[in-house]
Amino acid sequence: MKILVTYSSKTGNTGKVAEAIHQVLPGAVLFPVEQAPNANDYDLIFVGFWVDKGTADAKAAEYLRRISGKPVALFATLGAYPDSDHARESLDKAAEMVPDCFVVDRFICQGAIDPKLIAWMSQLPPEHPHAPDEARGKRWKDAERHPDDTDLHNARSWAARVYYGKKS
Known about the structure:
The chain is an alpha/beta fold and 168 residues long. The chain has helices at residues 13-23, 58-64, 85-95, 115-122, 134-143, 149-166, and strands spanning 3-7, 29-32, 44-52, 55-56, 71-78, 102-110.
């Protein structure tokens, strides 16, 4: 089985997760989306992205839209909590970018937020929906520690389950 692991990473979070996933997939190849080969040449495609505006970032979205008729496993990182509605909805929106593919499974974990984004949000007026508040500040602080060893272990376990469940 030919397996491709490709990802987009702004701050390195999704890249770390992609490398962890790659470690457990026999014979898989690993590429950033900008260098990824044609997905049609692979039997199973793992696509990773950082969540931007509630979906896959632009580079990953462009790659996802080029995949057709393949089994796809989606993985992502985001600043919010991975069990949040925002996380689930972000994965749902990414899955909509591959409507004629079979989304085998999904994985998401928290990742440190780009400091430039935090600086921007910190300047927002209090009435803005993304303005800092106590809960958001806690989430930003929690995100600084991720992806951690547990997240990477969970990503490897998830990828192994996907692979061995799909192996023909």
